[in-house]
Design goal:
- Keywords: Carbohydrate metabolism, Glucose metabolism, Isomerase, Magnesium, Metal-binding, Phosphoprotein.
- Its cofactor is Mg(2+).
- Pfam families: PGM1_C_vert_fung, PGM_PMM_I, PGM_PMM_II, PGM_PMM_III.
- Belongs to the phosphohexose mutase family.
- It is built from 21 helices and 28 strands.
- By secondary structure, it is of the alpha/beta class.
- The structure holds 1,6-di-O-phosphono-alpha-D-glucopyranose.
- 1,6-di-O-phosphono-alpha-D-glucopyranose (G16) binds near residues 288, 292 and 293.
- 1,6-di-O-phosphono-alpha-D-glucopyranose binds near residues 334 and 378.
């Protein structure tokens, strides 16, 4: 059938600047007349000469509005001269799967429909992200280009009556303005599963999970939080690796995530934490809406901080068949992530990089063959097998290491701390605050810390004192292309290696979210192993102490879920630094909040 494209006049929106990872807004914002159309047209226009004849991958995390947006994007691709759209069945593709398929099919890029870990539903969040030819999130120069196009857009192109059934797999061919346009609706999980089988030794993983040579089955509990990973998890963990049916939960992708907040941390994945506390399972993992974030727990809900997770993986990469083939080129972390991986990089003598928050900064290093493994404190871990972080990959990597080392999660952590020392880390998030006052807070803080006399200042909290060694607003120079990314977060680095970092999130859908990151390093074995030896009693006591400490200072922090903070040891060790951070930022004054929304 012959279709004709139309050019529809539009007027620009002034709020389509992509954040840390794409454009994220309320669904109702995207549903405004021409809002989604404008942003999609800007993405397509940013392809410039590559647009005509291009091949694009399209998929999302199954949240509300994904299907509507996917169908709209197909109509717009048809009208803009795209040659072929490869879309996931029902519009579903995880973010790492999109990255992989872009690379495997040598596509021009991909459009990912997700607001990641933000809640879904008609009055919740939606997002659109563009990934480039390397499979990774568009770098700053491209997102800036997209934004510049949005502010002067006068029309968009669409084929109104082209309806493609994305609920039926198959190849569909159309003629648009005399040119062939095809849509391929693919199995959402097949390509990704076969990639995982190339990276890991599935037969040893199966032996681990089912039990072999007199070993008991290693019981896992995987929680997809009703995000896109559900079908991937069922295929990999149940069908391929023999986990029991009840070893995977919330595996049906739902438009509102079944009311869950699909963010794998101790607060929002409390269901997994509570289940692991029962002591039945040896290993737990949860993933976010689009499948790129992960949280790892050991038996009895032993919490692995993302910074430690990265470091333990780095120290054991040789157990993963993929790296035995590719070699290990280097490690990297985002600037606010605690420096546990730094010491592993030093020990195994590989390149090490510190980049701004945002997975896009890792991509260039991977493309230049300088980087194999990287991670972020925001529950992101990944490798150069794709150009996105990858939740399921991280869980499989942990299981592969456990299968080889024959140690529990906790034993792996304890021996790691013994060898390398331990980084204590915590993050306070103040979500949905007034954007203007938060901007004022950041400017004021920048002025204070960058004043010439600030370095050398001694800051005292009760009996602890810290001397400022370096204070700045982090500026990154990409070692590959020399590009500069400035003002990526206020850093206060102290003489003893402790750090306070403050930045505004780039992934919220409304208002501003302030993130305060605090970390320190401990190598005194008595301190770093004390809580691990008597984990639960100690955590309870430590939690009481920190609450008392905060109370006596008349600073009552109301934890959303007191005592499920399994990393409470960090809260205690870091209490003086946390108080300094709250004071220096004047966070209460600027946000009007007595307590953070989430403590990680
Ligand atoms: C995105 C980026 C990550 C970043 C995270 C948090 O993750 O891909 O690299 O660490 O946002 O960003 P922010 O602190 O600015 O909110 P995701 O999982 O949301 O796509």
């Amino acid at each position: 059938m012959e279709f004709r494209s139309s050019v529809v006049p539009t007027t620009p929106f002034d709020d389509q600047k992509p954040g840390t990872s794409g454009l994220r807004k309320k669904v109702t914002v995207f549903q405004q007349q021409n809002y989604t159309e404008n942003f999609v047209q800007a993405i397509l226009d940013s392809l410039r000469d590559d647009l005509k004849g291009s091949v694009l991958i399209l998929g999302g995390d199954g949240r509300y509005y994904v299907k509507d947006a996917a169908k709209l994007i197909i109509k717009m691709c048809a009208a803009n001269g795209v040659k072929r759209v490869i879309v996931g069945h029902h519009g579903l593709l995880s973010t790492p799967a999109v990255s992989h398929i872009i690379r495997k099919r040598n596509a021009t890029g991909g459009i990912i429909l997700t607001a990641s870990h933000n809640p879904g539903g008609p009055d919740k969040d939606f997002g659109i992200k563009f990934n480039t030819r390397n499979g990774g999130p568009a770098p700053d120069n491209i997102t800036t280009d997209i934004f510049n196009i949005t502010v002067s857009l006068e029309s968009y192109k669409i084929v109104h009556d082209l309806e493609c059934d994305i609920d039926a797999q198959g190849d569909y061919a159309y003629s648009v303005d005399g040119n062939e346009f095809t849509v391929e609706v693919i199995d959402s999980v097949a390509d990704y599963v076969s990639l995982m089988k190339q990276i890991f030794d599935f037969s040893s993983l199966r032996n681990l999970l089912e039990g072999s040579e007199g070993q008991k089955p290693f019981k896992v509990l995987i929680n997809s939080l009703n995000g896109v990973t559900g079908p991937y998890v069922r295929q990999i963990f149940v069908k391929e690796l023999g986990a029991s049916e009840d070893g995977v939960v919330n595996t049906e992708p739902l438009e509102d995530f079944g009311g869950l907040h699909p963010d794998p941390n101790l607060t929002y994945a409390a269901e997994l934490v509570d289940a692991l506390k029962e002591g039945i399972h040896d290993f737990g993992a949860a993933f976010d809406g689009d499948g790129d974030r992960n949280m790892i727990l050991g038996k009895n809900a032993f919490f692995v901080t993302p910074s430690d997770s990265l470091a333990v993986l780095g120290a054991h990469l040789h157990h993963i068949p993929y790296f035995r083939t590719t070699g290990v080129k280097g490690f990297a972390r985002s600037m606010p992530t605690a420096g546990a991986i730094d010491r592993v990089a030093n020990a195994v003598a590989v390149n090490f990089y510190e980049v701004p928050t945002g997975w896009k900064y890792f991509g260039a290093l991977m493309d230049a063959n300088r980087l194999s493994l990287c991670g972020e404190e925001s529950f992101g871990t990944g490798s150069d097998h794709v150009r996105e972080k990858d939740g399921i990959w991280a869980a499989l990597a942990w299981l592969q290491i456990i299968a080889c080392e024959k140690k529990s999660v906790e034993e792996l952590l304890v021996s790691h701390w013994r060898k390398f020392g331990r980084n204590f880390f915590t993050r306070y998030d103040y979500e949905n605050c007034d954007a203007e006052s938060c901007a004022t807070m950041m400017n004021k803080l920048e002025q204070i810390v960058t004043s010439p006399v600030y370095v050398g200042t001694k800051i005292i909290h009760r009996n602890k004192s810290y001397v400022v060694k370096l204070a700045d607003n982090f500026c990154y120079e990409d070692p590959v292309d020399g590009s500069i990314t400035a003002r990526q977060g206020i850093r206060l680095l102290f003489a003893d290696g402790s750090r306070i970092i403050v930045r505004l999130s780039g992934t919220g859908s409304s208002g501003a979210t302030v993130r305060i990151y605090v970390d320190s390093y401990e190598k005194d074995e008595n301190v770093l192993l004390e809580d691990a030896q008597d984990f639960y009693v100690c955590f309870f006591l430590l939690a009481c102490i920190v609450s008392f400490d905060l109370l006596v200072r008349n600073e009552v922090v109301e934890y959303q879920k007191p005592f499920i903070q399994y990393n409470t040891a960090s809260q205690v060790v870091l209490a003086p630094l946390i108080n300094i951070a709250l004071d220096v930022t004047e966070i209460r004054v600027h946000t009007g909040r007595d307590a953070p929304t989430v403590i990680t």
